[in-house]
């Protein structure tokens, strides 16, 4: 039987899990793919930290870049992480030297995926990155294969388990962001430095990759990104009273030949499918023609789910299934129009914390009407004995820039005691 | 660029949709797969019925079996249907003559899939049947590729849109089976002869195929099958009051090295994921190690969704992605122990329509206790002024044969005025 020699570079939680998995499941994978996955080399920054792994000395590379030069190696699994530095060097060199690459590195693919794909195609090797988007959810393979027939109009969903866990916990326990975050760190649902998870940049990287796969376009950095740090308990409670949950969602959609990419906290109906996904799960919704709406849901992170994705990529290479990294040749990928969301219409939730005195409400509603934003619902909540009030407004659909203009105009008013909030609503 | 010549045999709703799709999307499919899908021949029982299709005369085969002999043809798409007759003849002959086959025919695969796979493997051609299970839901490709790393413990879900539509409508409109069915036929959600959809045999075929893919076993006919014809409005209302919906579910699960396959109406919590899937949608839930729980949801039937599946299979062949039809070589597939569910434990809903007289309740509960079935909840509902009563019992978990024994024992009692009901409960 044919054999593919593999080097695993990076032995953190994921690399360690994958190493053990491949040792344990070599036979069954060989049977399924008609080719043996043979781990020949490994490398890690700090060998001493190698936990409970018993790795024979001869497997260790002296320098991780040797993997890109060794004639024995067919396939390199990059698990270093980060868009720059060693990961970048490793993957560029590997593809240049005609090694297949499997990576879980969304930052690298979101930044250099286009360049890397060209090298992979020229050298007829695979560049596979299922594990970079939503861990165990096989969304990339589904877009490239199971749903290949479809013209995709929209992809959206929950792409970050940490932020979904935090928002779900704030909702279910009526706790503040800081309390829940501290707890999530203790439980291992948030990293020591969770900023990429919370500021939307993790979702942004994943969404850019999905967009390019859905629309056959190059990766585009025109994307609106907001995180969840400014969502507070009051927002969650007001949303709940109006029938909504707040979720950090990513959207990429084709409207009148323009593509809009956006990541932001979103009010979504409690009864909707996305509204029902709590905790660390990920869910991807794809609208395509002819298939209609497809949903794929599963565990988005962690060594086990990520290994499931890495092994699906490795298996594809074992079977000799050479595909274009982005589903279509780089020569055929398009430069589509990616547009800023300022001209796109949204219905939105706005919240103003104001001094509770006469004339404030009429001033606010006047600013709305002067700026072409019509109000669908308005709730005024005075805080007892404090002389302050929350005004929550749900708007009809209007251009995003009108919504932002209103926020800006009202922010400067003397009666405003806290930065106003703007959270877009999704009607699905 | 390479070219694959295709014959489409059968031009009903699906064949017609596929023919048009392939003509319209030839270029983009060629680009994605680096190979041109060329429809060279078609065949249909009744040419005169060819709707609005303008098919050039030279495309028509005189006899559909010519496709299996023609040296020009590489790939045959079988859309005749049925486990026997022309479909069987076509697919066996095609594979024997080294033609790739793509089919949407679940009955054929569930009955002859093992034999057909052996021929396909011996002749190194593909036998692909994504469209045979849940239409546009790419579950087969996900099991064979995206989730290939996983040891599957359980697969279950909603595999039939017609029955799900009928049960959902009975629930939402508080109508009887007959009323809803008549309506579903008018709307095109049920066929003129919907018996395979309603008696569970459609789900049974799909589940057998999924089982063999999940557990690397041969197709096995040890399967418990019940349909939805006996579910009435009262069952739906009682279930609802207890927090459940009734769904027709298929389950295949590995428990202590035994596989249990079963299709039956099931009480499932309203708040569960499956409980929330209404209408004609299909949903497949897969429990695997290491991935955890994965869900794939989408449109399960209709020409558009089915074409999405057929084209994913055709594309796989265009890319030269030759795989074992059942994920693993026939030589490696196992004969696993498939067990009857009689020894498996269930919690269940039982309903007895009885004469409303003293001693009945105590007799019923006595029979339960004598037969080792303990009662979790009991609701007695007298029907006003009619002298009859409904007794609904939710049991703790107990062996299926004990539940059936109770039904049998109580059925014979003089106070019983209607066949008692047994509906198993799923706790997920």
Overall pLDDT of chain A:
94
Q: What is the radius of gyration of chain A computed over CA atoms, rounded to a whole number of angstroms?
A: 24 Å
Whole-number tally of structural domains of chain A: 3
User: Largest interface, counted with CB-CB under 8 A?
Assistant: A-B, 53 and 52 residues
CATH topology of the largest domain in chain A: Dihydrodipicolinate Reductase, domain 2
CATH level-two architecture of the largest domain in chain A = 2-Layer Sandwich
Structural class category of chain A:
alpha/beta
Number of strands of chain A: 17
Distance between the termini of chain A: 50 Å
The CATH homologous superfamily of the largest domain in chain A is called Dihydrodipicolinate Reductase, domain 2
Describe what you observe in this structure.
The structure is a homodimer of 428-residue chains. Chain A has 428 residues and is α/β, with parallel strands linked by helices. In chain A, the strands form 2 sheets. In chain A, strands 6, 7, 8, 9, 10, 11, 12, 13, 14, 15, 16 and 17 form a 12-stranded mixed beta sheet that branches. Chain A has 3 domains: 130 residues, NAD(P)-binding Rossmann-like Domain (Rossmann fold); 160 residues, Dihydrodipicolinate Reductase, domain 2; 84 residues, ACT domain (Alpha-Beta Plaits, 2-Layer Sandwich). The first copy, chain A, is elongated, with a radius of gyration of 24 Å. The first copy, chain A, is built from 14 helices and 17 strands. β11 of chain A pairs antiparallel with β11 of chain B.
């Amino acid at each position: 039987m044919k054999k593919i020699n593999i080097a695993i570079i990076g032995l953190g939680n994921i690399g360690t899990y994958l190493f053990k998995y491949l040792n344990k499941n070599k036979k069954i994978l060989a049977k399924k793919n008609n080719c043996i996955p043979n781990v020949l080399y490994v490398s890690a920054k700090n060998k001493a930290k190698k936990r409970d792994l018993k790795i024979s000395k001869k497997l260790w590379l002296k320098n991780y870049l040797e993997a890109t030069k060794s004639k024995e190696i067919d396939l390199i699994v990059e698990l270093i992480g980060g868009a720059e530095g060693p990961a970048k060097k490793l993957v560029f060199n590997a593809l240049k030297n005609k090694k297949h690459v499997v990576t879980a590195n969304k930052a690298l693919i979101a930044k250099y995926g286009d360049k890397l794909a060209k090298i992979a195609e020229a050298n007829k090797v695979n560049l596979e990155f299922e594990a970079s988007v939503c861990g165990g959810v096989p969304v990339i393979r589904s877009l490239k294969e199971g749903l290949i027939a479809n013209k995709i109009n929209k992809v959206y969903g929950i792409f970050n388990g940490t932020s979904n866990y935090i928002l779900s916990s704030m909702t279910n326990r009526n706790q503040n962001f800081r309390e829940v975050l501290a707890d999530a760190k203790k439980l291992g649902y948030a990293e020591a430095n969770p900023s990429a998870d919370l500021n939307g940049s993790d979702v942004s990287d994943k969404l850019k990759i999905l967009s390019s796969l859905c629309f056959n376009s190059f990766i585009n950095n025109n994307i609106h990104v907001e995180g969840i740090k400014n969502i507070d308990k009051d927002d969650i409670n007001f949303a709940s009273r109006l029938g909504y949950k707040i979720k950090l969602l990513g959207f990429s959609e084709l409207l009148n030949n323009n593509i809009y990419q956006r990541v932001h906290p979103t009010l979504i109906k409690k009864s909707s499918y996305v509204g029902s996904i709590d905790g660390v799960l990920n869910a991807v919704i794809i609208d395509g023609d002819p298939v209609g709406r497809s949903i794929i849901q599963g565990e988005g992170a962690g060594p086990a789910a990520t290994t499931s994705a890495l092994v699906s990529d490795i298996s594809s290479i074992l079977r000799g299934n050479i595909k274009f990294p982005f589903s279509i040749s780089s020569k055929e990928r398009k430069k589509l129009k990616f547009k800023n969301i300022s001209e796109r219409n949204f219905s939105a939730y706005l919240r103003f914390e104001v001094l509770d005195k006469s004339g404030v409400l009429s001033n606010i509603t006047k600013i709305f009407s002067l700026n072409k934003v019509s109000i669908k619902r308005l709730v005024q909540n005075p805080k007892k004995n404090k002389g302050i009030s929350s005004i929550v407004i749900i708007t009809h659909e209007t251009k995003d820039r009108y919504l932002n203009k209103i926020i800006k105009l009202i922010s400067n008013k003397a009666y405003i005691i806290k930065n106003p909030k703007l959270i877009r609503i999704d009607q699905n």
